[in-house]
Structure formats: C-alpha cells, structure tokens
Amino acid sequence: MSDGSLILGIESSCDETAAAVVRDGRAVLSNVIASQHDLHRKFGGVVPEVASRAHIEKILPVIDEAIGGAGVSLDDVDAVAIGHRPGLIGSLLVGVAAAKTLAWSLGKPLIGIDHVKAHLYAGALDAEPIEYPALGLVVSGGHTSLYRVDSPHDMALLGHTIDDAVGEAYDKVAAILDIGFPGGPVVDKLAQTGDANSIRFPRTLLDADSLDFSYSGLKTAVLYHVRGKPTGRGKGATFERDASSLTDAEKADVCAAFQDAAIDVLITKAQRALQATGARSLLVGGGVSANSLLRRRLLELGEAQDLDVRLPKMAYCLDNAAMIAGLAHHRHAIGAQDDLSLAAMATTELK
Q1: Residue 138's domain spans which residues?
Q2: Are residues 153 and 226 in the same domain?
Q3: Rounded CA gap, 178 and 283, in Å?
Q4: Residue 348 maps to a domain
Q5: Which runs of E-coded beta strand occur in 55-103?
Q6: pLDDT over 80 at 39, yes or no
Q7: Considering the domain boundaries, does residue 338 fall inside one?
Q8: Which CATH number do you get for residue 240?
C-alpha cells in the first residue's frame, strides 16, 4: 500500500477515454488518454455513436495502462472515481459501467465526480494546494462558465454561455475556413502568423454587469466575412463564395482577429467577476485553457491584479482522468461515496 489516498480516476464524457492514478489529490502517478480525434476528423465534429463504440474498445486497455504506469495494483487503490456528468450520455455510460464494476469487484468506494468541477481542479495537479475562495473559469467545447469557488465541492454559478461555448466557436470557425478539426489548436496556430488588427470582429459583452457569454454573433460575423451574405434561409441558403477564395495569409488574419475577439470577451468577463467577488485566485480549466493567447492574457491579468492564476499543465487541459481522481480525493477524505445506483447524466447539476 502507498502512503496517503490512492485514487483511480476514469473519464469518458466525450471523445477521450482516460484513466489516471493520483495520490493525495495532487501527485499524478499516471495519466493515460486515448484520443478519438482521428475518428471524428472526417465528420468535422464528434459523432456520439462513434464515440461510444470507441470507448467500449479502449476503456479496459486504458485502465490497465494507467494502473501499470503508476506502478501499483488494483488492490492498492483506495477508491474508484468516475466523471459521471455532464457529457454525451452514451460515452458516459461506458465509463460509469466500468467504474461501478471495478468498485464492486474490488470492494472499493465508488466516487462520482462532476466533469466541470474537475476542470476547475486541474490547476492543483502536480502543484501547490489552491487557496480558496477563488474565481473559476471553464472554457471548453461544451462549456463557457464562471463560478465562485469556495472549496473543491462548493461552487456557485455566476455566468454561462447563452448560445455557443468558446470551444464550439473555435470548431465552427475552423469549419468555415476549412482548416481542420479540432478547431482550437488549428486556429491558435494559424493566428500566430496572422494580423489581429486586420479585421475588427464584434465583442459581445451583453449588459454592462453581465457575467454571461455569447459567441454566436462572433461566429456569424466570421461566416459572413469569409463567405459573404447569404441568399435564402436555412439549408437552402447560398453564399457568394467559400473559404477557397481566401489565401493562406488571409485565413491566418481571420484566425488572429477571431481569436483576439474571443479572448477579449473571456478576459473582460473574468475582470468583471473578480470585481464582483473579490476573489484572489483564478482557476482555469477546459480544452481552451491550452490556448496560447488566453494563457498569456490571463497571466498578465494575474500579474496586474496580484492574483494566483492556476492554469493547468498542458497534459491536464483536455478531458483527462487525473482531474477526476484529484478532485475525488477530497470527497474520499470526508468519507463521501456513491452507491451502485450512481447515474450517468448528460447535464450538470451546478446552479
């Protein structure tokens, strides 16, 4: 047995099959992720049925690799943690079934973890403990939200997207420009060679004190810039041109200008929330937390306001099981656990 709690985490909420072993909520002993990006690239987005089948194929090999990589045995594990919400229901069911089976067969506690909460804990992995209260910013393909975070399990929703999430907007812009999937890394890379000042895209800030987000207008502005105004509506709409009319340099300029606008909104909303809450720590999580401009702007904000900005290490930005296991340590420490009725849930219960 190891010293301290040893948690096996499992994550299958979307298109990454992941397992990890974490000691005492912070020391990551293994972190294995099987990505499905190649499977979904030809569709330009995640296909739920394809994702579910891939999870079935990968879940046991990934768990075996995580246990072996940590240098422990299943008997050494103190609890089995599973990200059971939110996400694609078929994908979640695969991970939940695997976690329940392991917990039951080993006689270990089962701990259900909210995937969104786990993203806000990612900055504590392989790092010093977080000082609470804090402001939490989740930026991913499905979520763009702000939270007041008083402890790892005590969060209050301050604002969220009313339409597209920021990561979803990145994917849609990449599709408009026909530059590949997933959109976040591709747009970020091209943006670094473009001129952000060449185009002025809108920054939707809503009301003066609003902490909600909206990226639908920005996405539409990019669409009209690239393809012109449509004739007709819905599936029958036709455009003046397509992305093939742009040079590589012009595509890079669109990426840079779009990214500048998207990140401006995130920074502005974070500043508003910091003023409203007085938080001295800023926790950031989700796939878009890997974005180079966002990371730089957040660190600048932290320096200007004397904030402890917790950006997750790159390995913990995307969906991963280390954040699931790390957060589960805090539930395990107080004796909290779930029974075999734990359900997979497509939506979060955070309010």
Answers
A1: 134-312
A2: yes
A3: 33
A4: no
A5: 79-85
A6: no
A7: no
A8: 3.30.420.40
